[in-house]
Structure formats: C-alpha cells, structure tokens
Amino acid sequence: MRRSFKFLLRPTVKQAAALAACLEDHRTLYNAALEHRRTAYAKAGVSIRYGDQSADLKHIRADDAGGQDRWSFSSQQATLRRLDKAFRAFFDRVKAGRTPGFPRFKGRGWFDTVEWPKDGDGCRWDSQPEHPSATFVRLQGVGHVRVHQHRPVKGQVKTISIKRESRRWFVVLSCDDVPAEPLPATGAVAGIDMGVASLVTTSGGDHLANPRHLAATADRLSDAQRDLARKKRGSKRRRKAVARVAALHAKVRRQRLDHAHKAALALVAAYDVIVHEDLRIANMTRSASGTIDAPGRNVAAKSGLNRSILDAGWGVFLAVLAHKAESAGRELIAVNPANTSRTCARCGHVAKENRLTQAVFACTACGHAAHADVNAAINILRAGLALREAAQAA
Fold it and tell me: Taking every annotated instance into account, which residue ranges of this chain make up the domain Cas12f1-like TNB (predicted)?
C-alpha cells in the first residue's frame, strides 16, 4: 500500500532563503508555461502539450544560468506536469457539463509545493545516514536540510515534496510497499453517524466529541483579520499580519487532523466492520445565498451550519478513517444516508416528524424514543450489513 509521511524541516537561514527562491522560481515556471499555452491557442489556435514544454526546459535553463538552472530538471518537469494535470481536469469538467474553472495563474500565496518525482534524482532522503542523531534530506540547490523525523519511515520512498505552510517548511514523502499493520479481530461491528454536536456517534451509543477548534480560535482569528484589514497593501507590516492569520489557520488545521487521527484510531481498534454515511460534503455546505432574482432562504442559519460542518472536519476524518482501516485490515462500508435520521430503528416507520429536535427521536407510529444520532447510527449499521450480505451472496 502507498502512504505519505510528513516531517517538519529545520533549515538554516540560508537554506530557508534558498527554499523560498526554489518555490518562487517554480511558480514563475508554472505561470510562464500557462501563459505559453494561452497565447499559443489565442494567437494561432495551437494546443501546447506537456511534451512540448518539457522539451523547451533545457533552453530555458540554458538562458537562465544561476536562476532556473539551479534547480532539479525533474522537479521542473513535475511542475509542468502539475499544469498539464490542471488542464486535463479542466477539459474533463467541460465534457461532463460541470463548471469548468480554467487554470489560473498562481500568486505568491497560491503556490506552496515543489515535488521531486524520484528519490535520488535531484534529491536524496536520509542523505547523511552516518549522522548519529539527526536525519537530513538533500535538495539540489539547497543542500542538506535537517529533518525533525518524529516517526520511522516505512516502505520505499518514491517521491519527495517540499511544502511551505505559513513560516514553516515540511518534507512530504510518498512511499510504496508500506506493510500493513493488521490488528487482532474483535468480532464487533458498528455504524457511525457524523454530527456537529458530537463528531461521531456509534450504534452502541458512544459519542466522540467535536472539539470545534475553529470556534475556539475565532476571537484571536477575528482580531488578526481585523488587524490585517488595516494594513497597507505591499507593506512589511501587512506581510506580518498575513503570516499571523495563516499561522492561526494552520494551527486549527493541525489540531483538526490530530483529533481525526485519534478518533479514527479508536474506532479501528474497537471494531472489525465500520459502516458510515456516504456523505457529499461539498453539496451539504453549498451556499444558500442564491441570486439577486431568487435569493435564498434562512441564509444566516445555513451559513452557520456550513461553518459548523466544515469546522467538524467530516471529510478529513473519513479520509483518515479509510487509511487506518485499510492498514489495520478492517472493513469500511459506505451507505446512502437518505432517511437514516428519519427512520425508526425499531419499526422502520419513516417520517420527518419522528425527529423532534436535533438530539431527540420519537417515533410517531410505535412511540420508540432514543437519541436521534444513536437511532441514525443503528439504521446506518443495518444498511451496511445488508449491503455486505448482498455482496457476499453475489
């Protein structure tokens, strides 16, 4: 199986400047390649492909000695492939009839990653293995950068990426042939209902808390954004204010990911089969503002609900849960969430009136009363087990 490992870098002042220059030159290359494609099609109706732009790289490097020539050829090819992938995704959306979203030029704050496609080609993981207490990654044009390796790397390192988050630098390793770590069987199964009051409610009645990290940081974030709004564009003080806002958002993101890992690990350790809702989070958090001619209803309430859903991090949690379940040898089943919160787990009666409040479920047919999320989790589990039995019978 493939797995990613992310570690904090400890660059020197000169190395940090070199990393910033590397990121900026790759951003410039990306934007120049995008302009090349746009101009060629607008002026001559010619479509430029990745192969054409990759062939031009040697001339670009030769004409910019000490600039683009400093960096790895393969990492620059990866940046051109990134642009090519954006164009292919654009044309796929056009064919599917969705909103296309033409590839855009990358501003300074919108290009934060450089990739080296192969370990040993312009980069080298664990470049100083003889060092007794530290790990280093070597990057062409930057040197040997110290890595804060807080856990062992498993499998074979295939690609190496450098990522900037606010003022921090990280190295991300994509590894193949990572061995699975199966956990002993428990014989237990569970359905889980995603929520805002509790992040997860199991069919057994357990609740995993939703820490609401964004809400906890809201006051500091509001102060930082208000301070940013007062700063003059292009000033040094504004750059510092932007960095402060970015650092707060990065902290919330790390807290949310850490909690997702802990919650997912607890579920994977306790259950052999886990059934969850197949949620379309992008659709659920779509704006209710509407248009001028047809304005939406309850916009403020919908906006608050969207913010709570995104703060809970359902998508992050489900992605982490899928990875951990695969590694542990657990079975993960996704079911259609339609009417799971309106169906009585005892008699099967479906009605909107069954759910009196966010937390209370009372069946209007049989009188069954339960916590609404627990009732939904039981329905989710039954649906998942039915799908599993049908698949096994087939």
Answer: 314-380
For residue range 5-22, list pLDDT tens digits in order: 999 999 999 999 999 999
Instruction: Find the angle CA(336)-CA(340)-CA(344) to the nearest 5 degrees.
Output: 150
Which tens digit of pLDDT belongs to each residue from 179-238? 988 999 999 999 999 988 899 999 999 999 889 898 899 999 999 999 999 999 989 999
Element (H, E) at 343: none
Could you tell me the two tokens for 133?
A: 């207490």
Domain check: are 89 and 143 in the same one? yes
Residues 263-267, mean pLDDT to the nearest whole number: 95
CA–CA gap between residue 73 and residue 173 (Å, rounded): 19
Full domain range(s) for residue 312: 189-393
Compute the half-sphere exposure of residue 163: CA atoms within 13 Å on the CB side of its CA: 13
Strands 331-335 and 273-277: parallel
Other beta carbons within 10 Å of 379? 25
Beta bridge partners of 207: 201
Shared domain for 236 and 363, answered yes or no, is yes
Query: Does residue 257 fall inside a structural domain?
Result: yes
Q: Are residues 243 and 211 in the same domain?
A: yes
Question: Are residues 112 and 232 located together in one domain of the fold?
Answer: no
Q: Is residue 319 part of a domain?
A: yes
b/e map of 219-249 (b: 16 or more CB within 10 Å)? eebeebeeebeeeeeeeeebeebbebbbebb
Co-location of 195 and 165 in the same domain: no
**183 located within any domain:** no
**Residue 301 pLDDT:** 65
Same domain, yes or no: 130 and 61: yes
Number of residues in the chain: 394
Domain endpoint, select from 119, 141, 176: 176
pLDDT of residue 381: 96
Q: Which two tokens stand for residue 68?
A: 């683009």
Residues 6 or more apart whose Cβ sits within 8 Å of residue 93: 99, 100, 101
Neighbours of 131 (CB within 10 A): 12
